[in-house]
Amino acid sequence: MVLIASYNIRKAIAADRRRRPERIIEILAEIGADVVLLQEADRRFGDRHSALPLHMLAEHSVYRPVPYEMRPGSIGWHGNAVLIGPNVEIIRHQPVHLPSLEPRGAVMADIQFHDATLRLVGMHLDLSGLWRRKQARAILSELEQQPDRLPLLMAGDLNEWRNSGCIRDFCQHHRIVPLGPSFHARQPVGKLDRMFVSEGIEVLDSGVHNSPLARNASDHLPVWARIRIG
Predict the structure, then answer these.
(1) Nearest Cα residue to 136 out of 207, 9, 144, 208
(2) Quick one: which of 109, 20, 11 has its CA closest to 65?
(3) In the chain, where are the structural domains located?
(4) Residue 64: enclosing H or E segment and its boundaries?
(5) Which among 14, 91, 12, 90 has a CA at the least distance from the CA of 53?
(6) pTM for this structure?
(7) 2-229 has CATH 2.40.110.10 classification
């Protein structure tokens, strides 16, 4: 079994508008996932360094970032990052370039967890429905071009309020994981954070991590799924 989480951390800016990366790290410890897909993991301005300082991750968590190395000081690509726990090995990884009006991207990683292999895609799609659909199709096209087929889990902040548009694009060949509302964290009404799985993956349990700490650390709540591969 593998526990996967997805979390838009809002650049680690808490409800009090202060940057508090230590809260995000505490929430990750609460969840205890083997792999975490992050959105808005980098600061927005300046050098766009990671909102979670690398020394804090190393000293106060079990996680290490998949090294996309697209920008010095960043842990991902356009704010998308993958954190892996101590029992996870990286097989290969790559950024995914997306069509967009504003900077958007996705990340892909193939990982080994014990005797299971899994392909992951983390994403944060556009505010525009037209561009979301273009981005969804770009991700699906990139997956089709991969030289091999692996059990797949895709997750992230899709900015889609209804079960239409890009949701339908992803659901053509993948199953949606049942998750509850995750936005806004203090009074969640929107299912903006989504997960999809391919054949070869059984979803054992899934949900939204709605703890007192999580309700004040970002404007999104983390979502999670416990899966069996194979």
Answers:
(1) 144
(2) 109
(3) 2-229
(4) strand 64-65
(5) 12
(6) 0.95
(7) no
